[in-house]
Amino acid sequence: MKFNTAKRSHQSNAALLLLSALLSVSVFAQTQPPGKKTVTAVPKPAEKVAEPAAPVEARAEALVAPPADMPKPFAPVFFDPAAPVLQYVQNEPRKVYDWVVEQLVSVPGKPDKFSSLDERNAYDAALAARMGGLGTIPIIGRCILDYNIAYETYEVKALAAPVKSDIDGSHSKPEALNLRRVTLGKANEKTDSYEASNAYGAITKVLRNTRDNYALVLSGTPGNEPSSALARGASSSVLSGYLHDFYYYRQSVKMPRDMARSLEKDIGCLYVASLAAPWVVTYQERTSPTRSDPIDETDNYFALYGKLDMVAVINKATGEIYSKVERGR
Asked: Are 167 and 283 in contact (CB under 8 A)?
């Protein structure tokens, strides 16, 4: 009988390799501490290197610096004859009025009924120092436009209406002051209605209008306004027991009809004012309703006080100046 020695030799070698592997595992297991499992080591990620801290000054500045998108406090752009007109667009009447009030209330030591003469004098000096340095303030506002076809000319009028009420409740006869106002802007206009009855029980529906007006109030005396352009209006009214005359600062602008038609909405007026004590005034005008005229009108005025240095007719879109009049010095 012949045996296949090659096959048996191959099987013997395979058995020896298997036995050797089992012995290796047995020996490795015996060398591990009891109960400890084999864990494959995972390489640790590289540690990040901390960036050096910012200097103390930079960190302090970052804490106090306002966000980049925070709006800056308002301050008016003062008048500069060489500056472009359109830079005055930001001088909105309400913002300018509020800014002037802020300057006034920021002066410390406002007197009360217990203040001594020295304290009052000190306050007056501080107030004059704070407010005396204010420059002239330009404000773009509305004006009245009438077009004369025959002469192809715009007649531009800025209304200078009389002040027909007590100023801050301190003047019993405002007509004696000869005060005029130029309305610069309006806000908070409201309209509603209510029912009212007279002494005989007749009921009438009354239309009520209320609005806030921002204006410039000035004394209508020589040297306070562009007197060369002042014209008396066609209408007057008896209010508060005395006659009020309406005036205008009038200018003419030659302009062809086609151009006048296309630019009508862009034409406005630039008012330049120098403020003076008391710098701001407030008052209210009220028209009481009647059965024949059932309208209840209330106008609250928040006004700058001073002199009207210039009225210019301008193009609000381009900044072009068509005409201007200035007060006599």
From this structure: yes
Peptide bond between residue 278 and the one before it cis (omega within 30 degrees of 0) = yes
pLDDT digits (tens, 9 = 90+) for 235-276: 555 444 444 567 899 999 999 999 999 999 999 999 999 999
Q: pLDDT tens digits, residue range 186-199?
A: 999 999 998 888 77
Rg of the chain over Cα atoms, rounded to whole angstroms, equals: 42
Please tell me which residue, 295 or 40, carries the higher pLDDT value: 295
Taking the C-alpha atoms of residue 72 and residue 69, their distance in angstroms, rounded to an integer, is 9
User: Any idea how long the chain is?
Assistant: 329
Prediction pTM value: 0.73
For residue 109, pLDDT beyond 60:
yes
Positive or negative, the Cα torsion across 300, 137, 91, 65?
A: negative
Q: Containing H/E element for 242?
A: strand 242-254
